């Protein structure tokens, strides 16, 4: 029972997923600090004299009715920066490493090649009397 659990944990996809989660968390912290320290103050420049930042107030003299647009823009910038970093730091090098190692990518098969493989497998299966 423990051997099966160990095999499950040591499966390549699980380890890759764990690394990706840790790396993603680290990138989120760095990018959030960058946007909070640089992007948010730059967005506040466009917010006017309002203490609450970039946005608009639905009812005058009621700060609770302020709709903040700055955090939405900051979150979008966070997402774009994190996605770009993960792509260029993790995905592109992984693809290059697979190519250098000669690992075939199943996604590279064309529709016709895939159909030929299915046909061949079905032909083998029907010709094998043990199945």
From TrEMBL:
Q: Name the protein family.
A: Belongs to the MscL family.
Which positions, given as ranges, span the membrane? 21-46, 66-92
Superkingdom of source? Bacteria
Q: What InterPro entries does this protein map onto? A: Mechanosensitive_channel_CS, MS_channel, MSC/AndL, MscL_channel
Listed Pfam families:
MscL
Compartments (UniProt record): Cell membrane
**Entries under Gene3D superfamilies matching the protein:** Large-conductance mechanosensitive channel, MscL, domain 1
- Subunit and partners: Homopentamer.
Q: Which SUPFAM superfamilies match?
A: Gated mechanosensitive channel (SSF81330)
Protein's job:
Channel that opens in response to stretch forces in the membrane lipid bilayer. May participate in the regulation of osmotic pressure changes within the cell.
What is the recorded membrane topology of this protein?
Answer: Multi-pass membrane protein
Keyword annotations from UniProtKB, A to Z: Cell membrane, Ion channel, Ion transport, Membrane, Transmembrane, Transmembrane helix, Transport
Q: State the protein's name.
A: Large-conductance mechanosensitive channel
